[in-house]
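We store sequence with structure; for instance:
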Amino acid sequence: MSFDIRKSGKGGLSSPEHFIVTRDGNVFLRLLGEEPDYEIMTATASEDGGGLVRVADQVRLVEAALRTGKQVFGVRSFVEEDHKGREYAKICRLEYLSDAYRVAERFFEIYDGIGQGAGRPRSDLAAVYAELAVDDTGGDVYLSDGVWLGRDGAVTDRGR
């Protein structure tokens, strides 16, 4: 369960410092703020300049964040929307950046335990695909922010 915490190169974030938690080329979490007050939350967008993309299964990501907040810190988190209407969840507040390693470790234990596609069943998404597809070629349908919906209901993030 190897992950990395590094400075973020994302523009447009209104925070003195911003870091990301990454694994396997994906951005899972963001840390915004500065000592002694950081907030750790799910990432809604890929990093600027390519390379690190947001997690495709946002439902699973948010669910893991909500569970981490409740199980680890006893806090009830809420799903919020960013300025583009994308859902995210704040896990907790941290005093030190070093505390993020413990939070991320527990987050990934929960995330990995949930399993893929824990959100909406693929059969439901396949029905959504049938409604959105403009022809019978079977090609993927573009949703938003580099996210595509396949004929079988699979959601993939190809970045922007």
Notes: Residues 58-73 form the longest helix (16 residues). The chain has a mean pLDDT of 85. Residues 122-157 form one domain. The chain is about 25% helix and 30% strand.
